[in-house]
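Regression report. Comparing outputs from two consecutive submissions.

Submission 1:
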Amino acid sequence: MTAATHSSSFPAGPDHADSADAVLLGLDPEQREVATTLRGPVCVLAGAGTGKTRAITHRIAYGVRSGQLMPASVLAVTFTNRAAGEMRGRLRSLGAGGVQARTFHSAALRQLQYFWPKAVGGDVPRLLERKIQLIAEAGARCRIRLDRGELRDVTGEIEWAKVTQTVPADYPVAVLKTGREAPRDTAETAQIYGTYEQLKRDRGMIDFEDVLLLTVGILQDRYDIAEQIRSQYQHFVVDEYQDVSPLQQRLLDLWLGERDSLCVVGDASQTIYSFTGATPDHLLNFRTRYPQATVVKLVRDYRSTPQVVHLANGLLNQAKGRAAEHRLELVSQRETGPDPVYAEYPDEPAEAEGVAGRIRDLIAAGVPAGEIAVLYRINAQSEVYEQALADAGVPYQLRGAERFFERQEVQKAILALRGAARSGGNDPLLEDVVELGSQVRAVLSSTGWAAEPPASSGAVRDQWESLAALVRLAEDFARTRPGATLVDLTVELDERKAAQHAPTVQGVTLASLHAAKGLEWDAVFLVGLTDGMMPITYAKTDEQVEEERRLLYVGVTRARHHLTLSWALSRAPGGRASRRASRFLNGLRPGSVAPGSGAAAERGPRKRARRGPVLCRVCGRTLTEAGELKLMRCEDCPSDMDEGLYERLREWRAAQSKEQGLPAYCVFTDKTLMAIAEAAPSEAGELSMISGVGGRKLDRYGTEVLAICAGQEPGGEDADDA
């Protein structure tokens, strides 16, 4: 059995640093073939958890250390700053630190900034990092009002149009030709798109898609510049090749010219970004384009237990379409583990509370909070899990929230480390402290870090977790860079900040399935797995449904050891149990029947259960937002809330918060208090029906809350008599 490939942020280098062959130690036969095939086109079909990053970084390092590749002649391209940062760290530890590892956008922006004065003249236009405000302005100029959701939709459509190289006038026709489900009138979107482009031109700005488009334009028009880039970069490696868009492929073709020194790595079964223009066709057609290509399949899964791998393979065995024809059958290399857990709940709050309880049990059993993730289909599902984890006293982090290096406590900590590095031995905090990790702990103790985490959750715990992540990063850095100093660490932190390559924060991760791509945890909870959410309602065509299946496959393959899949039969407590588990689990979960089996055929087609929408109790509109669902009315509809009761509940909550040392929202959120004040429940059953009041909170606070609702003091006396 080959050793697992899971490693820290700073992988240890080979034992024999001067030997190129030492880079090959520990690779399995297929990974070794990838590493030693340095010439001609190479296509690596790599399943989830099979060590693809290990294979390609060792390939580059072997080429560099054997003298067959010059470090500056290699450009490794991937899709996220995190992945590029991890690749640079691995290459550096393997003795190939001069290799460029970047995202498509980062590499293109660097080239654009360098060649713009020569190709166009003047300064490079200012980069627009967040386009949504300018798109809102474009909509207003077109006399089209867009709410927050519509703004996201239009932004997505404009991004898709640009990466598929579609100009505003051609957008409606392109939507028809591709069979794309447009979220709104295509003529209106085209109008907004055209106005947005004009606003950028008027203000001398470009967006991220323009970076690729302009670089492609320069390389197409200026042969001399294209040749200059080609003379620098002789060898290309592209990770996650199944996610390449037509525009990115065009840029890659221009970088390559007539050469074929290209290594691509991908897995068609992990194509989950087609809505952004990504397509697996470039990967699937690679052997047609390069008949002489070397093709290597990586199927030894070092990440997940046989039980997790069995479920992942089972999901793909039911898949259809071209990507499914090229699926890889994974073979686990790990010891046996627990079977996946399937859990059904009566409603969403009960599901969240059940998941939080299981997570608390895992942490008590020794699984670090940072090695646990809750993954859902859409971000709107996170609120109920945030609440449940806060109620259970479990720290968590939202992936996709504030960037790590932009957090105030992190910026303050890095300033302190930089100051200590400049002071050297003159800093009183570092007297008699030699080892790098100890130095960092000593410096950060002045900014709020302590050896033991705070007992409370909320902001104080979040800040401690950020500082603890810096401490762990420093310890990793010291292990792999013996003799490293505080100065070296601050340089590393600056590089990571520039690449947004954040360390791991020790809290349970809450993330969408899309955001979880490329990550892994010891324990994964896949939640909300109902038809209508997985696959999501707007997945109409066969290909859209198959992409939803691939998305679930990505979620399953994030788990190393523990995997729980759950769903709720209704949205709110007391609601009609009209939902059913995802069709993707049929034939996989106990007691279910595989699609197309004899038993299912005998029963005939199953009628789709009618989903009961949750309606506003004032105006009757269907509710979709989490806050509205909690109140059972639209935010804008008039409230019949008892203001006095609401204020008494807030005062009681403040006292509870102070007494328990918890943030107020951990007792009850504002929305839950409003819902209680509007409902004014008189008995426990009525109180339990309110979203945000789970069984644990009912047991803990129910008697006092009901007393307050009855006009009594929590201790039992009548409020008017007190």
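Submission 2:
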Amino acid sequence: MQRNDTPRRDVPSRRRDSEDSWDDGLIARRVTEATGGEQAAVVETRPSGPQSAAPLAYDGPLRSRLDAMRELVGLSRTRLDSKTLAEAGRVLDEAAARRKLSGQHTVVAIAGASGSGKSQLFNALAGVAISETGVRRPTTAAPIACSWSDGAATLIDRLGIPGRLRRRPLQSPEAEEQLRGLVLVDLPDLDSAAVQHREQAERLLDLVDAVIWVVDPEKYADAVLHERYLRPMAGHAEVMFVVLNQVDRLPGEAADQVLDDLRRLLDEDGIPLGEFGEPGATVLALSALTGEGIGELRETLGQFVTERGAAARRVSADLDAAAARLWPVYATRRRTGLSEQARDEFSARLADAVGATAAGEAAERAWLRNANRACGTPWLRLWRWLQDRSELPTGRISLRAQADEQATARQRVEQAVRTVADRASAGLPAPWAQAVREAAVRGSQGLPEALDELAARAGLPPGRPPRPGWWPAAVLVQAAMTLVQIVGGLWLVGQIAGVMAPNLGVPVLLMLSGIVGGPLVEWSCKLAARGPSRRYGQEAERRLREAAAGCGRARVLDPVAAELLRYREVREQYARVLGTGAGVG
């Protein structure tokens, strides 16, 4: 079906009138008095550019939310795929584009299925037959725009509607005053058999400031309309009109019953209704054919346009919808992060892997061995030396034990990393949990080797352990006890050889004093050495534990903490997008 869009010449006086009243670059159709209300194919295009109009201004809270969404997308690009962020990026782009255009106009689309009478409603509001109507489907193949005031050309350019499909309504001072600032767009049928028609209608639905959904008594409960369009746009209720058309076909109270059922379906779709002063969708019943209810819609639409808040509310609703889609990748209902207990357990596992406890015990034994060398009896030290010499090491067992110990230590390190990664990622949305685990795995590469190197550097210091101040006195006493034994023994030998006068009491007493005194001094030194040796071992263990903890913190905990900090930042930005101003979850 072809439209009569071809411009034809008119008398010069009418052209001058058109130029005086219209300079928006749109095409004008007017009804003249001579035709008695019939459509006149007066079509004119002004060569001049569109009049300038004040751009749209967003309020402070909406600007803050848009800035937060922009920051959120920037922080998330390295963690989320472009498909996840696509809708948020589209909303930001469209909000920026709409902000540059006229804030004095409101773009309202008329959408509906074929046969619902949306083109009739479009013509009834314009006061002239602009959009073609008929029984042939689809009737509306391309969108048509009608503007009630100048300065809307850039807005219509954004919709991609060519100049040949731009119209002006019937010249009526009362109608122009009532609907000043309205740009009405008749969309192609949403259920059109032509795929390009549906795609074009859906594209424009994302760009307009408000939508008038037109339904008829036969298709008002159509599942496609509710599930594909109305239900997903439930958050846009404040910029939606739902019009039950063709009520003239319903007898008696049937119109009220159908209207009540329509309200019920909208409520099931999650669309709040703007009744009793509450914000929500406006639901009306009318007949575009007979004109019943058109005045009420015109008045309601006029008030809606006069408020000039539809564009900002549409952007805010789009922002809410985009934020709702991002909820699974940002929000969590669990407390996240690494507790001090988890950090301490990770450090303890690394310390066990490097053998910090065993190193402390070895240091304590080394201190005690050094004490025995200084304070023990010569005879006991000689016996221990001979015992050590009698045990010849083969080397096979020690090498195998060392290899087994290294393998076990590596397994402990890997288990410690897995455990801390699982605890750090617990409760996080999937992308951020994966990022935390990847950070832990990257940090664990080379960690066992680094811990071995630290263990070698932070282990026992070279040389003998330090000695307390009382050790020289103990060594002197032990030497005196040994000397007493030697003197007593030589005295007895001299008496047996007859060199010295017989006197068993004194040499025996000296020998007994040395024999008993030496072990007694050694035992006393061991008691006195317990405290210092334990402290020395604990200090060695502490140094190794701190070294292992520092290595684990630098390689694993800090990267994990950085990922958790990034998640907290994006979660705070997400909360700003939602308008809560606090953390989510």
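Expected: both submissions complete independently.
Actual: both completed, but the second showed a warning that disappeared on reload.
Relevant detail on submission 2: The beta strands are 106-112, 144-147, 166-167, 182-186, 210-215, 240-244, 282-285.
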